[in-house]
């Protein structure tokens, strides 16, 4: 279903080639992290940390803070809004026809399939630049000067995390969701739970934040690899889906509204 089959196989670059981006050596590795999702607790494995993100404790797993009201015209345009990159796309035209619910297809099945595919592709794209998202270079999960995303820990407290840690928590949290049969059933006759739509909205919101962070901080790496057409088309596909089914509030889209 996804038009991004052309980039499958991309993933994290090895440390050996970390000083330069070489698309031929990028290998997608499974994301692991050792930090606890509570800064006051000891280290745990990635699997253990992700399991502690329960629906009650982390269904709203982060908050965002917007500062200032200066217009984009008063600032230097970010690279992704500059010519020719802003108009570069692998697929031209509207994505509406490929995100609309097909006839005789169950709505829950269709939404689950699209979110599953989009998440896997986003995970692959993040793998391309993951080694460069270091705590030293990106100590906060931001999407430009006006958006900073905070994580809600197990105690309900908002904490400022490095971008790499925030994204890895999000990836683990979404992975647990889509692999949970009680949330995303795959067996014949399996019914979608009453809170399925809420989970889809939470997942879509977190995915958007990763999009926003990459656009504002790592688009130069995407351009260096000549993947801007794939990336822009992928984002257009994602936005078409969330707009079609009203999965993300407009105020959440603010960091990328000029692009949208």
TrEMBL record:
GO MF terms, alphabetically ordered: kinase activity; protein kinase activator activity
The keyword Oxidoreductase belongs to this UniProt entry's keyword annotation: no
Name of the protein described by the UniProt record: CBK1 kinase activator protein MOB2
Top-level taxon in the UniProt lineage: Eukaryota
Assembly and oligomerization: Interacts with protein kinase CBK1 to form the RAM CBK1-MOB2 kinase complex.
UniProt key word Cytoplasm: yes
Cell compartments where the protein resides: Cytoplasm; Nucleus
GO biological process, one term: establishment or maintenance of cell polarity
Region Disordered, annotated ranges: 35-69
Database matches in SMART domains: Mob1_phocein (SM01388)
Record key words, sorted: Cell cycle, Cell division, Cytoplasm, Kinase, Metal-binding, Mitosis, Nucleus, Phosphoprotein, Transferase, Zinc
Species this protein is from: Scheffersomyces stipitis (strain ATCC 58785 / CBS 6054 / NBRC 10063 / NRRL Y-11545)
Binding site for Zn(2+): 213, 218
SUPFAM superfamilies: Mob1/phocein
GO cellular component, one term: cellular bud neck
Family under the similarity heading: Belongs to the MOB1/phocein family.
